[in-house]
Amino acid sequence: MELAEGASLEQELDAEVAARKAGRGPLRMILSEARIKEVAVSLLQGLACFHLQGLVHMDIKPANVLRRACGQLMLADFDCMRQHDASGHVETCAGTPAFMAPEVRVGFTGERTRRTSKLDTYSVGALLACCASYHGGTSGLAKLNSYLRCGAALPSFVPAALQAFIDELVAEDAEQRPTVAEALRHPYLAPAPPPRPQHLATSMEKKRRAAAVKAANAAIPGWC
What we know:
Organism: Tetrabaena socialis
Shape: globular
CATH class of the largest domain: Mainly Alpha
Number of helices: 8
Domain Protein kinase: 1-189
Number of domains: 2
Strand content: under 5%
Radius of gyration: 23 Å
Low-confidence stretches: none
CATH superfamily of the largest domain: Transferase(Phosphotransferase) domain 1
Mean pLDDT: 86
Helix content: 40-55%
Protein name: Serine/threonine-protein kinase pakH
CATH architecture of the largest domain: Orthogonal Bundle
Number of strands: 4
GO biological process, one term: signal transduction
Structural class: mainly alpha
Order of helices and strands: HHEEEEHHHHHH
Distance between the termini: 78 Å
GO molecular function: ATP binding; protein kinase activity
Strand order of the largest sheet: 1-4
């Protein structure tokens, strides 16, 4: 068994929330957008490996995401993990209520509903909402519940592209939800294009300026 020397994601969020309460300033996300993208990619990549083997984690939450000393994230707590059947259906209902997909929640009432690996996608979206804004005691859980189950919007300080990405992951209808593999290919997670080398940018700018001067001179009669 591999050792995770660092704190859990939940502890990381706790520390950030405490620091935010101690300081003063404008409202902002708990984790930076860059960090949230790192968390999303790491979780989705790990889950994609499980899903290829027909395994569904079923209990994605900050406490079950551990961090190695190098910063790499690791999934933990496989007590709820289940194998889906040949049709992709997961028979058992399990997990943590706050991060549980709708099709899992209704399964506890005895209602027959189809559950697939997309229930993990939903939990990742709920976790990312926590990383953005909804972490911290009873108040955080209440706000997360309001967003996931009552249609409340994410706070305005959450970037629109991130809001849209999370909204897709937590779609009420599992058919409208992406698989983890599809989520990994989402444009929001695409790496930013590398910056142009400074010397190239400077050279191109000089050429544009020379062309503009030449065009302006050509418009003046008798100027060549």
